Amino acid sequence: MRILAIDIGTGTQDILLFDSANVVENNPKLVMPSPTAIVAREVERATGAGKTLLLTGATMGGGPCGWAVEHHLKAGYRVFATPDAARTFDDHLENVERMGIKVVSEDEAQRLADDDGVSCITMRDLDMERIGRSLVSFGIEPRYDGVAVAVFDHGAAPIDVSDRTFRFDHLRRAVEANPSLLGHGYLAPEVPVYLTRMRSLVDSYPGGTDAPLFLLDTAPAGAIGCLGDSEVRSHHERLLVNLGNMHATAFHLDGDRILGLFEHHTGLVDQDKVNRLLERLVSGALENGEVFADHGHGAHVFTRGDKRPFLAVTGPQRALMAGSPLRPHFAVPYGDMMLSGCFGLVRAFGAKMPQWRDEIEHALIV
């Protein structure tokens, strides 16, 4: 069976075409700029040309594209956006308008698009057509039995609730309902309405395909992917850390049962802080308030475990832990650290689809 796994981050989108008939290491894979980075570059070109911006399409991940739009506005140029595209920057459109972005209807956007002085940019996280063309250019048929996508979704917080609080409360409730690391993720019809980025992916998923769409958060995707490293698998109690370009997440596991977790912003931590957070997480002393007060998302200890679990680190910013006295193992699942999230997606997809679970697990065993 063939699964197209796409781990969409802030800096990169990592793509794996998993085929259970292949040796895992021989499967086609790509590490390419993230959708938000691609949009940011398009915005920067419009700024350089002094053009008005028109943003259409779907709600997608922010970060770089949001910063580029802010720079465009500060440079004195106008920005228009349709409602779905505008929610990339804030789920509450009144807040988007306060940023200086004019929210317009689809009809008004169509009129603006005819103006030569307007640069039109389509917002979207998932571009199946572009990925398919890339595969075809190397003689690979873009045929999939399933499509699995990981994104980081804050969710649509009420206007008086911090989006950091809202996201972490969602993670905590999900773990309380099912403490298994492999027990999370949604088939397209199951995605909660408040996970607006995932819902946008569902809405923009191409019709006319029989391949089921599976959605997973990037935090568990990276952690699950670490299990593709044989050294990590050889330990029962583990502390798995994913140092992404934007977010730093840690899961304390007993087997695949989540004992505790925290989530912070990578740009706000250094090695000493990560060491301290990990030690306090494992000891059971780490509290949600201290992470939130430090402008992170939060922390929760569900059950105390061993005070010396095996520590494994993955993610593009893993060098942050180089030389740490905690002596981390730098996980390299199937020889490719950047594909950790994709391997996690494949394994989580198998857990969700019992008819394919054994075939997927058999292909992943090395």
Give an overview in words.
- The chain folds into three domains: 2-33 and 129-217, Nucleotidyltransferase, domain 5, CATH 3.30.420; 35-123, Rossmann fold (3-Layer(aba) Sandwich), CATH 3.40.50; 222-339, ATPase, nucleotide binding domain (Nucleotidyltransferase, domain 5), CATH 3.30.420.
- 37% of the residues lie in helices and 23% in strands.
- The protein is built from 14 helices and 16 strands.
- The chain is globular and about 60 Å long.
- The two termini are 18 Å apart.
- The model has no long low-confidence stretch (mean pLDDT 95).
Mean pLDDT comes to 95
By CATH, the topology of the largest domain is: Nucleotidyltransferase, domain 5
Q: What is the name of the CATH class of the largest domain?
A: Alpha Beta
CATH architectural grouping of the largest domain: 2-Layer Sandwich
Shape: globular
Count structural domains.
3
What distance separates the N and C termini?
18 Å
| Helix/strand structural class | alpha/beta
Low-confidence stretches: none
- Whole-angstrom Rg: 21 Å
What is the tally of helical segments? 14
Strand residue percentage:
15-25%
Q: Trace the largest sheet across and list its strands.
A: 3-2-1-8-10-9
